[in-house]
Amino acid sequence: MVFWNASQFSQLVIAINRFVNLYFPFRYEAIFNKNVTSASIYSVWIFALAQGMPYFWADCTLLFDFKSFTFGFIDTRCSVFIGYYLDFDLSIAVVSTIAFIDFTSFLKIHHLQKKGSLHLMRKDVKFFLQTWVQAMASIAELVVYFWVAPLAMDNKWFHFCLTTLSWMLVELVDGCVF
């Protein structure tokens, strides 16, 4: 969970960096100076570690459920809070924010290309599309894991596929895109 969160927060910082570069090109170096860049990296890992620590507490941990063949939170207030708000809601918020920032960056790129003041190379367009594919894969995985899979609790193999394989598939897509 720590590394999943660090990955998401890193992608958010990258999206913000790209946005600032496009919308504030003359102030970019002042905004993303060495101190801000270092603070961004430290913040990513501090938030990721802070969010991952509760998983080590006995009341907030995940257990393997042999009936559904998946990991799930034990039934406590802590685990419900961690599982739903810190895992699902925060992940959806971060990925949606990345998608919004990248969409506004896309609009700026499109505007600059239309004016003829920006000429993107093919690799730049591919890089931009990679971020969209990664964001859409993450959103799809979260929706399948938290909303679709619970509807299939009666069939343990189907539930297993919807949870475990969707989790693995998003990591596969992320690796292939990278």
Automatic annotation (TrEMBL):
It is found in: Membrane. Residues 1-109 form the G-protein coupled receptors family 1 profile domain. Keywords: Membrane, Transmembrane, Transmembrane helix. The keyword Transmembrane applies. PROSITE patterns: G_PROTEIN_RECEP_F1_1 (PS00237), G_PROTEIN_RECEP_F1_2 (PS50262). The chain crosses the membrane at residues 36-57, 90-107, 127-148. GO terms for cellular component: membrane. PANTHER family: G-PROTEIN COUPLED RECEPTORS FAMILY 1 PROFILE DOMAIN-CONTAINING PROTEIN, SERPENTINE RECEPTOR, CLASS X. This is G-protein coupled receptors family 1 profile domain-containing protein.
